[in-house]
Amino acid sequence: MLAAATLRGALAPNGPLRDYVTLTKPRIMSLLLLTGACGMFVGARGWPGAWTLVAGLTGLALACGGASALNHVLDADIDRLMGKRTEKRPVAAGRVPPSRALEFGLALSALSFALLASTVNVVAATLALVGNLFYVLVYTRWLKRSTPQNIVIGGAAGAVPPLVGYAAATGDVTFAALLLFAIVFFWTPPHFWALALLIKENYAAARVPMLPVVRGDRETARQIVLYAAVLLAVSLTPVLWGGMGVVYLASALVLGAVFVALALLLQRSLARGHAALLFHYSLLYLALLFVAMAIDPMLT
């Protein structure tokens, strides 16, 4: 309420309803919700229960949507400088006043905590809130504008949803849950750097120190290969310490091998087409890996 009051002045218009949906970044949210849902299945070693699944995903969606809306407020100045991809976003384009977007983001975040704490458990609610604050205050406000390692450290925020899902099913965070976190954490840099290679001119125009802008395409491709190799190794750890079986093992090996192969292909050519291919495959990779993780306990 105090944060919203800082931008409160004359009564501001609400803006179109569809713009409020845009503020929540639904396409990004869908992958976060998938990893969160699969985290519930892993924690429950099967079906987590309809109530846990619905309440947990609703609370997680509110947390993700709230964080994204606050990101729109803090990044409005950058969005205006990054070309067609971002300049028409609701706050950057002026269709939704910053004060309204701030209130919207804070309301969703508060509702998320209240819903998860009252209907699921306090552990899941706290994790969702921590992920929200880390994304908004640590990544968006600080790291993104100050270091080329922004997405490496800031990637921790996107790795929180499987922890929320696991905690929703179990009420606890175990070593197995931390392995889910680690997979998403090491997946984030190669995924995001592949996109950054495609739009590095936009980041340069906004003076955002993404790795391709600061270190160049070749070093970025080299880092992508290194992280892809580490990701393959980390993705196998749930077999050793997380109770995963043969279904997950086969999926992790195949999906990870393709990821590394595409990263090596990009390193050799530095072609935009190969960067785009790796970026889109990385989305499929994470989705399929977590689905395999969710169904493995039910098939083995």
Q: How does this structure look, described?
A:
It contains 16 helices and no strands. It has helices at 2-6, 17-23, 26-44, 50-74, 76-79, 98-119, 122-146, 150-158, 160-170, 175-198, 200-205, 211-215, 217-235, 237-241, 246-269, 272-299. The model has no long low-confidence stretch (mean pLDDT 94).
Describe what is shown at a glance:
79% of the residues lie in helices and 0% in strands. It is an all-alpha fold and 300 residues long.
List the helices and strands and how they pair.
Blueprint: H1 2-6, H2 17-23, H3 26-44, H4 50-74, H5 76-79, H6 98-119, H7 122-146, H8 150-158, H9 160-170, H10 175-198, H11 200-205, H12 211-215, H13 217-235, H14 237-241, H15 246-269, H16 272-299
Helix pairs in contact: 3-4, 3-9, 3-16, 4-6, 4-7, 4-9, 6-7, 7-8, 7-9, 8-10, 9-10, 10-13, 10-16, 13-15, 15-16
N- to C-terminal distance:
49 Å
Mean pLDDT: 94
Helix proportion? over 70%
Reported for the largest beta sheet, the result is: none
Structural class: mainly alpha
What are the secondary-structure elements, in order, as H or E?
Answer: HHHHHHHHHHHHHHHH
DSSP E strands, number: 0
Give the C-alpha Rg.
19 Å
Number of helices: 16
Please tell me what the overall shape is: flat
